[in-house]
Amino acid sequence: KAGVTQTPRYLIKTRGQQVTLSCSPISGHRSVSWYQQTPGQGLQFLFEYFSETQRNKGNFPGRFSGRQFSNSRSEMNVSTLELGDSALYLCASSWGTSGSRTDTQYFGPGTRLTVL
Amino acid sequence: AQSVTQLGSHVSVSEGALVLLRCNYSSSVPPYLFWYVQYPNQGLQLLLKYTSAATLVKGINGFEAEFKKSETSFHLTKPSAHMSDAAEYFCAVSGHGGATNKLIFGTGTLLAVQP
What we know:
A: globular; B: 6-stranded mixed beta sheet; 5-stranded antiparallel beta sheet; 0% helix
């Protein structure tokens, strides 16, 4: 079974630009979550989508947004990039049924975003 | 609210020695706890999870963890370290409050294995 895939793996942008990251979950998984990983703040939850609806959101500014398509693939968008947005962005998928807290989240390899 | 604290941002052991990585949790509801490992330039891989079925949880690659409610701990152990165990390890607790799969992570412990 194919794992979680994320594209692109590496991205370099300049301040003020916007960026879109893509995540394809494991087949059959309906929940996709996004996390930001930085050396200073560690791993932080951005948001979760289930059946095309945002089910939960972390404490990030409105410049961070996402969406999920009917095939469960998800994208996240960051507008007006800032230097501090440089990070590894990880996507995780799970069955998501009933929002179970015991669901195992399977992570993709991440997208490394560098903002210059 | 839930949180986890990992004591020791860096741990170094000799090959063949016991690995002990510490994690303490805080939770207002029965916690569900996870240990993940991250190798350089990769995502997170689940080692094991505690979902209240058994307090001693066995995971992949010879790792196990014991849930101790009295100590609010979920420490990760492996009897004999291997060079391939060198990586960063994250303890996480599942958030609560409505339907959610949100994970709250500790700050991570970087494990070095010396030959």
